[in-house]
Amino acid sequence: MALLPARDRLRSIVWLGLPIMGGMLSQSLLNLVDAAMVGSLGDKQALAGVGLGGYLNFMAIAMVMGLGAGVQAMVARRRGQGLDSEIARPLNEGLLIGLLMAIPLTLFCWTQADWLVGLLTEDAAVREVGSAYFAWRALAIVAVAANFAFRGYWNGIRRSGMYLQILICMHLANVLVSYALIFGKFGLPEMGAEGSGLGTCIAMFFGAALYFFATLKDGREHGFLRAIPQLRTLQSMLRLSLPNSLQQLLFATGITTLFWIIGQIGTAELAVAHILINLALFLILPGVGLGMAATTLVSQSLGAGKPEDAYRWGWDVVRVAGCALFVMGMPFWLVPELVLGLFTRDPELIALGIWPLRITGIGMSLDATALVLTQALLGAGASRTVMGINLGVQWLLFLPLAWLAGPVLGGGLLTVWLLQSGYRAINSTIFAIMWRRRHWSRINI
């Protein structure tokens, strides 16, 4: 078997996946810039607090993240069926569901931010920073829900370039506003780490506005805001989105639990873990971006009645992702000290992070199968299968072992990171087996 797929199929993957991958890469860079700006304050508690607040926010928005995959799968399926006037109907339903879910979630997180952060840390300084940061991020949940739904539409119609353009504009605004609020530039107040949360909140609403006007201009012929949401379509959207949202919620809860476990080892370990996870996301999110290309390619092939082609697309994208992640991960295991030095000047944190970062870079190619086939299965409508596999391995295997090996037996951060790489490799193996069985090809959405 060749290392990469045939030229015409590679061209299709790159044409669709590169803008999505670029958008995900820009999101990773944004996370890294935020970490670098907060890290430059020279305060471990601030870095740890933003880390905790950020992953609490991940838990909060996880409830609406499933809308993106649901909208994308249904839009691509209708495009494959040639139903041009109904392509945007799933977007209408996705926006309505997102609004109804986001409003009560925002109110709860905003009013209970200090209590929620206090559940994860006993350090008063970390709690103060984390709760303020999380409160601002929580205000943007409505905008995040809309952004995921719009992203699903544009990727589903194979115009991922629009997603990339809007995401870059949103991230540039985020960097500029966050920088001004963190350090008190351009006449704005100096808010420190809290300013990063407010800057991101503003950028999320800016991005939602850009998406809305772009879709209003080009999506009306596909039915955007032209049709009243139908109960049948709403039910299909919920059937696709809720298992994925629940999976994202429990996965995010697992990441937050991992942060709590590492916090039991020490504050320094918690601070460096925040850097390490953001660096891991630098590789993971582009991999997910290629996986989202697989979502569209698989769903569209199934809509056109070509299950064998859908099967081939899954493996073709896995091969491309494996090569891409190997190349992108090389600096992590070749020059880890240099990479970590971009985010902290503390020699203790750099020393703690060297080997975990090497493990991240080396193991990421093995993770490509899980990253891509997760999204491909979502495109086929197998959201319950994806949820069961991901949550089973994470909650029944990895997290109990991390708790036992870390705080209980004193294994430290390196041991926990080795276990995490093993858990991701197991995930990839299971998803490969599920894809080969092809049960997903018979699902109707």
Automatic annotation (TrEMBL):
One of its GO terms (molecular function) is antiporter activity. NCBIfam families: matE (TIGR00797). It is a multi-pass membrane protein. It comes from Halopseudomonas yangmingensis. This is Multidrug-efflux transporter. Pfam families: MatE. Signal peptide: none annotated. The keyword Lipid biosynthesis does not apply. One of its GO terms (biological process) is monoatomic ion transport.
